[in-house]
Amino acid sequence: LTEEQKKSVALEYMKAITTKYSKSEWKAMIDIELERIQNATIISAAKNVGVELTLVKDEPKAPVKETGLTSANMEGTWTFEEGKYNFTDGGVYILEIGSKTCRGRWALDGKVLTITPDGGLQKAFGVCNAERFDLMNPNPTDFSCMSGKKVLHFKKEKK
Fold first, then answer.
1. Given CA atoms 13, 19, 23, 29 in this order, what sign does their dihedral have?
2. What angle do CA 71, 77, 80 make, to 5 degrees?
3. Secondary structure of 20-85 in the HEC alphabet?
4. d(CA 141, CA 135)
5. Which among 103, 112, 130, 157 could bridge 77 via Cys, Cβ 3.0 to 4.6 Å?
6. Residue 147 in contact with residue 123, Cβ under 8 Å?
7. Nearest 5°: phi and psi at 69?
8. pLDDT per position in the chain (159 positions), as tens?
């Protein structure tokens, strides 16, 4: 094959393959192959240095304790020392501090609350500048999180 033919075949192959598999399917296949290569390399390296590998079974992990705080019960108005957040069911929040307001997107994943402001007003407030908060003792009525060196305490307003 000429160089041009090799390029044409490679491009056609990539077109066919990317049409057939999604990015997540490719990642899963790559992860499986990388693990296989890693395991083979470790076994080979162990043989080269005269070490015998034995399989150690993992102890069963304790089940993850449910926090009780979910995206559904996160929705609503939460007050804290400096103002309040209103979290909507569409993943949008409105932050009010004094007479200032700003908007952004929010997501809750277990004990991690992600806040993504729409614009720079958030930083001007000097509160919740971080975009990822590890929640402490989260439950459907209150939680705490770190903002810089300060601990913020949130309480859900009753409807």
1. negative
2. 105
3. HCCHHHHHHHHHHHHHHHHHHHHHHHHHHHCCCCCCCCCCCCCCCCCCCCCHHHHCEEEEECCEEE
4. 13
5. 157
6. no
7. -95, 120
8. 899 999 999 888 888 877 877 777 777 777 778 888 888 888 888 888 888 877 666 666 555 455 578 888 889 999 998 889 999 888 888 888 888 888 888 888 888 888 887 765 445 444 444 467 888 888 889 988 877 677 888 999 987
Q: Cα torsion at 109, 113, 119, 122 (round to 10°)?
A: 180
Which residues are paired to 101 by β-bridges? Answer: 96
Other Cβ atoms within 10 Å of 154 Cβ, number: 19
Going 126 to 145 to 150 to 152, the CA torsion angle's sign is positive
Which amino acid is it at 111?
K
Q: Which two tokens stand for residue 60?
A: 């069963």
DSSP at 10: H
Q: 85: which 2 tokens?
A: 């957040």
